[in-house]
Amino acid sequence: MLRNLWLRLSGAAPAPGPGRAGSRGSLLILWVSIRLCAASLGRPPWAEYYGTKSRYEVLSGVSVPGTDWLAPANCTVLQVNALIRHGTRYPTRKNVPHMVEIHQLIREQGDLGSSLVQALAGWHMWYNERMDGNLHPLGISEMFKLAKRLSARFPALFAVQSYREKRLKFLTSSKHRCVNSTKSFIQGLESYLNLSDQEGGQWEVNDGLMRFFDHCEKFKNLVENNNTALHQVEIFKNGPEMERIMSNMAKKLGISSSAINTNMVEATFYLCTYEFILKGVISPWCDLLDKEDVEVLEYLGDLKQYWKRSYGYKINGLSSYKLFQDLFQYMDQTIEESERNQSISHTAVLRFGHAETLLPVLTLMGYFKDDHPLLANNFKQQKHRKFKSGRISPFAANLILVLYRFNGARGLGEKYRLQLFLNERPLPFPHSGNLIADYEEVKECYQQLIESLKFSNVCDDHSYFHFIFFLFLLILFIVYY
Q1: Average pLDDT, the chain
Q2: Which pLDDT score is estimated for 5?
Q3: What is d(CA 333, CA 345) in angstroms, rounded to the nearest whole number?
Q4: Any idea what the Cα angle at residue 176 is, between residues 170 and 182, rounded to 5°?
């Protein structure tokens, strides 16, 4: 019975070939019994180490609105600005081939006398490249529920009249997982407001804002298309920590360690991760790793995010400046309309993007910066680092800026206040540590980013033109001298 239950939960099927009955079947049932007992404890192993593929509700612990969302005393909420990562998705096309590779290796070379190898060999490979990062039903549910929670917390902003008058603005990346996240959010909002889908929420695709990294030439040249930009990642992948994981995996599988590479190790971690976040199953893939292994693999993922999307290179944060300015432009407009006693044009502006959208913005704002950079050789020293991408940007992550009017203000400088939430938890301002700040104080803190970058394109890469100019001068020198 346990074996059949495990087959049903995990999608496993009996591995073909003779000699798999009898004692081997008993070994498999024993393994399943152990895993089901672990599952009954309620918390999967290492769920906090899944990086940007973490499950939102496991890390955020959201359930019902709490007192943290209450408006400050004597304040009226005017606007919500939100930056939301798409919901939980299937693996992308680039991940699947390595998953297939490690599974095939186990089936062909693994020690079938091991209950773990039997479980892995009998596991059904159901991931395929056609999934390519599509939004999973769980991601649909996450966006639907997030919309209902935000509507319940700010009923005056997410009101029926505001929705029908199109005072709720939706912006999205063109990627299908973001567009479908936007649709699911709108459906959750309509459900909360008891509106039919014929009301027709509208959204705008804007890759210039939501996929700014695709439009920043300097970022693409210095980081995205630069083979040496992630050299710290490559050093770590070839370092002693990863060597130890490959050696331990090989011993558990009864396979030569030379047959396993770092891509297979990462694929194993992804299989452990996706089986839990998509199916709620504690997979046999997790048993190829121990706690120290997943801490290493979490750090590998954080290294990638740090050097490609965060503090590794200055352009990573600066590349998001147009989106950062867009947040403040909408709040400035709202304050102008409030001062003129006009109706607020947009009571909520909701933007749907990627982890690659959210991380650079938080970097630009100065959040989660460690005293020392993340490097290939300081894994142990960074065990308690601030920069943990799974805590910052799991699936369905959200940065929410709430603008208030303070009704007891003595002057304009105190009249408007700002509050930040990350993943629906209060986020202190980096310059003061306070949970609420005067809007003008925040603008002053970021004045250089808001004003000085307004008329200069930090994404222009002039290195190519400098090279051409130098080449032109060299030719002139050769010709005339």
Answers
A1: 87
A2: 41
A3: 8
A4: 25
Tens digit of each residue's pLDDT (9 = 90 or more) over 58-91 = 876 655 445 567 788 899 999 999 999 999 999 9
- State the pLDDT at residue 137: 97
pLDDT at 46: 80
Catalytic residue among 86, 98, 136, 354: 86
What is the pTM for the complete model shown?
A: 0.87
Active site residue 466: no
Spatial distance between the Cα atoms of 247 and 253, rounded to a whole number of angstroms: 10
Contacting residues for 280 by C-beta, under 8 A, at least 6 apart: none
Q: How many other CB atoms are there within 10 angstroms of residue 283's CB atom?
A: 24
List Cα–Cα distances, 467 to 45, 463, 464, 472, in angstroms: 52, 6, 5, 9
- Rounded to a whole number of angstroms, the distance between the first and last alpha carbons of the chain is 89
Tokens encoding 80: 């919500």
Which segments in the chain show pLDDT lower than 50?
A: 1-24, 27-34, 36-43, 64-65, 464-465, 467, 469
